[in-house]
């Protein structure tokens, strides 16, 4: 195998997050504004062939794990076709999907057959009215049906992503934890991040994830670190309540960043490599697709400018930062 994708700090990158669209059928409050978003025209999005060519080259440099993101990836037509194309690439071992799951239930079987191995479902509330408010119109019954369908077709593990927001859903922490006691699901609590915000309003909703462990202690639940069987590529610290069927994870990029173990690169829907979620550095791949050596060189150039950390904690404290934060919103990056 060729040289592996390693940055200046010795971090090996074997994981690529691929955004297939910046569009979404919802308007979650932490992801994009209710109106006024300008979306990329379809002709500016990377084609399935272009995405496959990028992954084919990177597989030769050690990329083994992929995650399909958006926007909402299931608004991209014929996504099953892309997953089948990617799963056929030698060296690719794992293809995951991050979705709001509104459209997932009816397509679960086809996606699984195409090569999808895992799924992360965004679910920030278990209460129908609150879920509709957070998502600005989402129907929780469709998400719950998709969870059951993911179980039925054999996706494992099934992870539920919960962005924790002060004054909005922190009173549901125990409800989500009880869900892990009753079901073989992995609930992942995620800190509110300052991605693409043009104001400081996110700070008022930020809550550190130490709160989750404090709630466990208050309930008298015995919590143990748990990694067994949790295939994945991400930065979650995983735990299990004693006797629970499922697990829960904490993803805390602000209060306790995980940059020292970062193994991921991002490819945006409009064809830009993002070495770091938070910073503004980008490298467009369009002109080098078809030239394998030039494409690989571009990814190594991206790794050469990847900073040691993202410094989101400094943003919380309004301290000066060493690089320029991105102005893209989460939906435009792919998370």
From TrEMBL:
Ligand binding (GTP): 17, 67, 98, 159, 264-266
Pfam families with a match to the protein in the record: Mob_synth_C, Radical_SAM
Record: residues binding S-adenosyl-L-methionine: 30, 71, 122, 193
Keyword annotations of the record: 4Fe-4S, GTP-binding, Iron, Iron-sulfur, Lyase, Metal-binding, Molybdenum cofactor biosynthesis, Nucleotide-binding, S-adenosyl-L-methionine
GO BP term (any one): Mo-molybdopterin cofactor biosynthetic process
GO molecular function: 4 iron, 4 sulfur cluster binding; cyclic pyranopterin monophosphate synthase activity; GTP 3',8'-cyclase activity; GTP binding; metal ion binding; S-adenosyl-L-methionine binding
Pathway participation: Cofactor biosynthesis; molybdopterin biosynthesis
Entry keyword DNA damage: no
Keyword presence, RNA-binding: no
Primary role: Catalyzes the cyclization of GTP to (8S)-3',8-cyclo-7,8-dihydroguanosine 5'-triphosphate.
Subunit structure: Monomer and homodimer.
Family of this protein: Belongs to the radical SAM superfamily. MoaA family.
Protein name: GTP 3',8-cyclase
Protein encoded by which gene: moaA
């Amino acid at each position: 195998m060729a040289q592996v994708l390693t940055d200046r700090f010795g971090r090996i990158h074997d994981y690529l997050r691929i955004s297939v669209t910046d569009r979404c059928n919802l308007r979650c409050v932490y992801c994009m504004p209710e109106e006024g978003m300008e979306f990329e025209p379809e002709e500016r999005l990377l084609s399935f062939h272009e995405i496959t060519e990028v992954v084919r080259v990177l597989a030769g440099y050690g990329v083994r794990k992929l995650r399909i993101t958006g926007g909402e990836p299931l608004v991209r037509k014929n996504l099953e076709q892309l997953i089948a194309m990617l799963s056929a690439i030698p060296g690719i071992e794992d293809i995951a999907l991050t979705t709001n799951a509104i459209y997932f239930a009816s397509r679960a079987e086809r996606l699984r057959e195409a090569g999808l191995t895992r799924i992360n479902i965004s679910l920030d509330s278990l209460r129908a009215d609150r879920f509709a408010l957070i998502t600005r119109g989402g129907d929780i019954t469709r998400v719950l049906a998709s969870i059951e369908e993911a179980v039925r077709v054999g996706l494992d593990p099934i992870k539920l992503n919960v962005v924790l927001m002060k004054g909005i859903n922190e009173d549901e922490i125990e409800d989500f934890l009880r869900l892990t006691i009753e079901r073989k699901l992995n609930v992942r609590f995620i800190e509110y991040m300052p991605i693409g915000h043009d104001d400081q309003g996110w700070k008022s909703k930020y809550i550190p994830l130490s709160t989750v462990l404090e709630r466990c202690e208050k309930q008298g639940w015995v919590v143990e670190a748990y990694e067994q069987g949790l295939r994945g590529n991400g930065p979650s610290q995983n735990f299990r309540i004693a006797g629970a069927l499922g697990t829960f994870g904490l993803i805390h990029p602000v209060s306790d960043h995980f940059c020292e173990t970062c193994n991921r690169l991002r490819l945006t829907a409009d064809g830009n490599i993002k070495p770091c979620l938070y910073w503004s550095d980008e490298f467009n791949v369009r002109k080098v697709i078809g030239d394998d050596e030039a494409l690989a060189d571009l990814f190594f150039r991206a790794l050469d400018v990847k900073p040691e950390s993202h410094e989101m904690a400094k943003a919380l404290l309004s301290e000066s930062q060493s690089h320029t934060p991105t102005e893209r919103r989460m939906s435009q990056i792919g998370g």
